[in-house]
Each structure stands twice: as C-alpha cells, then as structure tokens.
Design the sequence.
C-alpha cells in the first residue's frame, strides 16, 4: 500500500488520473477500484 501512496504525486499519476476521469465508464471503474482499496485498508486496520 505504501508503494501505491508514494506514486500519486508524480506527473504520470496525475496524467493517469485525468485519463481515468475523462469518461463515465473509466470514472466508474476508478470508483470501484477505490472502494476495493478502502475495504482492504479497513480490513487491515481491524486486524490490529
């Protein structure tokens, strides 16, 4: 997870984010991916 977080500040990550926000289908996929990550984080926190 930490590797994913460190990448978000790069120019490439911002460009990818703009692309993923460019159409409804890609926005829906991005949101579904966000929800999956959120569940993973919550599950990890619950284990502690």
Sequence:
């Amino acid at each position: 997870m930490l590797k994913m977080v460190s990448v978000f500040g790069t120019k490439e990550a911002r460009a990818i984010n703009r692309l993923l926000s460019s159409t409804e289908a890609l926005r829906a996929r991005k949101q579904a991916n966000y929800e999956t990550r959120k569940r993973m984080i919550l599950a990890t926190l619950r284990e502690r």
Observations:
- The helical segments are 2-7, 11-20, 24-47.
- The chain has one domain: 12-47.
- Residues 12-47 form one domain.
- The first helix runs from residue 2 to 7.
